[in-house]
Specification:
alpha+beta; globular; about 160 residues; 6-stranded antiparallel β-sheet; Thiol Ester Dehydrase, Chain A; 3 helices
């Protein structure tokens, strides 16, 4: 299932995939919206709410929230290979560079390499001013399992 075996996803396929994920209960709970602005990268945007802030009275976004957003950003890069099939993040490595404060979080992800059933991706999380606060690298498992016909982000 290499990227050479499948045509690149169309903008319409990626838009449907992003819309399906953005409408999921989990992303609505977090307030995240997903899109693929140029067909080569992923963007996840989340307004920062009080429940996203860290422990011990911190005004910075909690690291667990950042980890969840990185899992989303890395895992959903698999749609850049094939939005009709399920993918899973199987490895995630994160570096927190500075506290993320402010009203908005923006994650940006991209595929770095695809080989067989594995893809390597990287992502950043920025604050509202565009300053990178954290970076991640991950490995994605590309499957042959299609999304179900109803209520899914995939394209049949």
């Amino acid at each position: 299932m290499s990227s050479r075996q499948r045509p690149a996803p169309t903008p319409e396929q990626l838009a449907r995939y992003a819309r399906g994920f953005s409408e999921s209960a989990t992303l609505r709970f977090f307030g995240v919206t997903l899109d693929y602005p140029d067909g080569r990268t992923l963007r996840a945007t989340m307004p920062v709410r009080p429940e996203h802030l860290g422990g011990l009275g911190s005004d910075a976004v909690n690291g667990g929230i950042l980890a969840a957003i990185f899992d989303l950003a890395i895992g959903c890069c698999g749609a850049l290979v094939d939005p009709t099939r399920r993918t899973a993040t199987i490895q995630l490595s994160m570096n927190f560079e500075r506290a993320l404060r402010g009203p908005l979080l923006v994650a940006r992800g991209q595929l770095d390499r695809v080989g067989g059933r594995t893809a390597f991706a990287s992502a950043t999380i920025e604050d509202a001013e565009g300053e990178v606060c954290a970076r991640a690298q991950g490995i994605i498992r590309l499957t042959d399992v299609p999304w179900e016909a109803e209520g899914h982000p995939g394209i049949n």
